[in-house]
Amino acid sequence: MPIPSLAALPIRRLTLRDLTACADLSEDRGWPREEHKWGLLLAAGKGYGIDDPHGGLVTACVVTEYGPYSEPDLGAIGMVLVAERHARQGIGRRLMSHVLSAMGTTPLTLHATPNGRPLYEELGFKLTGRAEMLQGRFTPGGPAPTVSTRAATAEDLATILRLDEEVLGTDRTHLITRLPAFADQLRVAEESGRIIGYAAAWPNMNTHVVGPLIARDTETAQALLTSLAAGTDRPLRTDVDVRHEELRAWGRERGLAPVGLNSVMTYGVPELPGDWSRRFAPLTVAAL
After folding, report:
1. pLDDT in tens, 97-155
2. Do residues 51 and 12 lie in contact, with contact meaning Cβ atoms separated by under 8 Å?
3. What H or E segment, with its residue span, contains residue 247?
């Protein structure tokens, strides 16, 4: 039986059963396997992909929707990958066009690598910001943080959800309620018994990724990051909005070196909703 052309292969929804194939695809493109992250995204979001007749996946991506279940007010696209053997044949464009059609009028956002940005611009995405990836072994130093932090408890979850929606401008309940199981650490910052920020550290290969990082101000963000670093012996990684120059400079002083710069892009909306001044880092650049 002849093998159908790539253009004839159907795009289908991915599920958690496709986790290994998605991780294999990441590895094929020289990315870390990131099975822990793939598991979260496939459970909380909608995966799309094309099966390779020879086995594995030709391409894949995940869309995580936010807001009302039946009428999301924002979607985040991430993990857009095409197998090396099928690269530069228009497969990525076909998958992205399918996602844009499936999402209808829902505004979209994504973090684009330098290689991916030209395609997204051609599809109508606009540059709205940048995020700098910082990574390294955190070295404590300087004045001790004056903001109090502690491990989050089950009783804090409702307050965390309210704060998160206020700062992000959209409801992420289906994602944030997975943090206690997904992350190794979930901490809150307090002032006079009131939660003014929260952050998580979750395992990704040999690092702990810090995200989300939501905080009232830079000092609060520093206190949360310092407390998370104290709870791990792994290198830290986080993606900081470049507008938070003070936190980025402080992170570099503490051993977190810049290792990459992604473009934050939107489609159908001029900028992301919410309060960027309190949004220091996303849960992951593949979501929000």
Report:
1. 999 999 999 999 999 999 999 999 999 999 999 999 999 999 998 888 899 999 999 99
2. yes
3. helix 245-253
- Strands 46-51, 57-66: pairing is antiparallel
Distance CA 72, CA 66 (A): 5
Residue 109's beta-bridge partner residues? 76, 266
Cα separation, 211 vs 19, whole angstroms:
22
Q: How far is CA 146 from CA 218, 222, 224, 242, in A?
A: 12, 10, 11, 24
Q: Which residue has the tokens 């997204």?
A: 120
What DSSP state is assigned to residue 86?
G
Residue with tokens 């909608």: 46
Give the C-alpha separation, 48 to 4, whole Å: 19
Task: Find tokens 């695809």 and name the residue.
Answer: 25
Amino acid residing at 21: A
CA 238 to CA 253: how far, in whole Å?
15
Report how far apart, in Å, the C-alpha atoms of 13 and of each of 42, 62, 191, 197, 276 are.
10, 9, 45, 35, 32
**210 backbone dihedrals φ, ψ, rounded to 5°:** -95, 115
Q: Determine the residue type at 15.
A: T
pTM for the whole thing? 0.95
Contacts of 178 (CB under 8 A, 6+ apart): 40, 43, 44
What H or E segment, with its residue span, contains residue 152? none
Residue count of the chain? 288
Dist. CA 110–CA 102, nearest whole Å: 16
Rounded CA separation 127/132 (Å): 15
Within a 10 A sphere around the Cβ of 53, how many other Cβ atoms?
12
